[in-house]
Amino acid sequence: MAATGTQSHPRVLIVDDHPAIRRIVRLTCERHGMDVIGETPAGTEAIEMARTLHPDVIVLDLVLPDMDGFTVARSIREEDPDSKILILSARDDDKAVFDSIRAGVDGYLDKTAKEEQISYAIDEIIAGRQVFSTEQDRSAMDQLGQFIRHSREVADVNSVLTDREMDVLKLIAQGLTTRQMGSRLGLSDRTIESHISKLYRKLGAKTRVQVVMKAAALGLIDIEID
Amino acid sequence: MSANAFALSAVESPTVISLDESIIDLDQEQIGVILVDHRRMVRASMEAFIAQQSDLEVIGQASNATTAIELLKDSPVDDGIVIVVDLDTSDGAGLNLVRTIEQDFPNCTVVGFGRGEDVAAVARAFYAGVCAFVDANVDPAELVAAIRAAGAGDVVVKGLSRQALPRLAQEIEKLKSGGPRLTERECQILQVAAEGLAAQDIAQRIGISVRTVTTHLSHIYSKLGVHSRVAAIAAATKGGYLLSQPTES
């Protein structure tokens, strides 16, 4: 621990799968009197290092080989709500900024940021302030509106689909035939067909493919794309 | 002590400002606005600000939900009307009004305003049917922007801090997957139950069998996650499904 009067250096953890970016961030930090206490290309390791090293700030990329940065940020903050995170990402779309704010990060820079911007952001964050541009705040609020609208649609559909219809929906998504669904659920073909036609109507779809697409878009089912 | 003038019940002297007939002039692309707040001064200041906007026009004001509904019923056209509703009512009357409008006047949109800190309440308001939420502390320009956005069918939040965003998103997510959703019949039964009636009397009042009433009640309990009538009434009132005071008249 730093004694009184001694200047303690901010301790930084760098998480990015590109060695070149890690190097740039490291040099930036070092030039501005910060200590880089760790570097990692992977999310799992980042979570572990955050837990053991307690960095003052974590510079985090959004696209990592093992998991996305939002998940990493959320896990780190669940463990320690006071941890401070600066996103440094090649992504600069509104959705990425919104999801980052949702994950509770303290700042967001895209990779066109200049060295001084990075060091300034880290200083601000360590001082307890968040670093977002007016434009980022505005776009995040727009995204919030869209997020609410979408959630409401899902809730509407959820509330009108019966449990049995949900069962059938999941089997449709797996590509089962009517007969297969019938034997799986212990129902007659006729009953399955009537569940399916209700699903068509409730989801506003005309074909099985449309049913699956619509349901996936609403997050009612997950479809795996190989 | 002042009775909450916003409650649907006990309407003493409803403040009604008659509908301005000029709204029928469809040549102008104007958005008709109805203001609902029990405080006259709040309505007056909102109106003064809205009056400065050439594309907006206050076509009515109401001090309570009953009056607001009357205004909507009397309106020659309800298409595209934006109703600005004070949600910050302890009895959930604001939220109830939002639900009624959503159900009976689907061509109208609602802009709710209240305390943005209470993100759970904001989330409930959106699920009740508001198109926009405006924190009561924002610049009036934001309210006007919200009215325009809601009129255009957008879903917007104004005046919420960035720090509150993750919490609101979380509440929205929570309600998406399984907030209690009472049917109209369930609300009706609970409303009567709140008056202290026995199942038999409820059945008689509504005109259904006692058995059906008890079935509905048990559904309501399980949806609200409670085990008693009192707890159900408390939970439903908080969620804005009920009026706080049973009607006496």
Task: Give me the secondary-structure topology.
The complex is a heterodimer of chains A (226) and B (249).
Chain A (H helix, E strand, L loop, with lengths): L10 E5 L3 H13 L3 E6 L2 H11 L3 E4 L8 H11 L5 E5 L4 H9 L4 E4 L4 H12 L7 H27 L2 H11 L4 H8 L3 H15 L4 H10 L9
Parallel strand pairs in A: 1-2, 1-3, 3-4, 4-5
Chain B lengths: L15 E2 L13 E6 L3 H12 L4 E7 L2 H10 L7 E5 L6 H12 L4 E6 L4 H10 L3 E4 L4 H12 L4 E3 L6 H14 L5 H10 L5 H8 L3 H15 L4 H10 L11
Parallel strand pairs in B: 2-3, 2-4, 4-5, 5-6, 6-7
Antiparallel strand pairs in B: 1-3
Helix pairs in contact in B: 4-6, 7-9, 7-10, 8-9, 9-10
Question: How would you summarize what this structure contains?
Answer:
Chain A has 226 residues and is α/β, with parallel strands linked by helices. Chain A is built from 10 helices and 5 strands.
Label this structure with key terms.
heterodimer; A: 226 residues; alpha/beta; Rossmann fold; Arc Repressor Mutant, subunit A; five-stranded parallel sheet; 10 helices; elongated; disordered N terminus; B: 249 residues; 2 domains; seven-stranded mixed sheet; disordered C terminus
The overall average pLDDT of chain B, rounded, is: 82
**How many distinct domains of chain A?**
2
CATH-wise, what's the superfamily of the largest domain in chain B?
Answer: Response regulator
The strands making up the biggest β-sheet of chain A line up spatially as: 2-1-3-4-5
Spans of chain B of at least 5 consecutive residues whose pLDDT stays below 50 are 1-14, 21-27, 244-249
Helix content of chain A: 55-70%
User: What is the strand tally of chain B?
Assistant: 7
- Mean pLDDT across all amino acids of chain A: 90
Sheet of most strands of chain A: 5 strands, parallel
Q: Enter the CATH topology name of the largest domain in chain A.
A: Rossmann fold
Low-confidence stretches of chain A: 1-6
CATH topology of the largest domain in chain B, anyone?
Rossmann fold
Number of helices of chain B: 10
Structural class estimated from helices and strands of chain A? alpha/beta
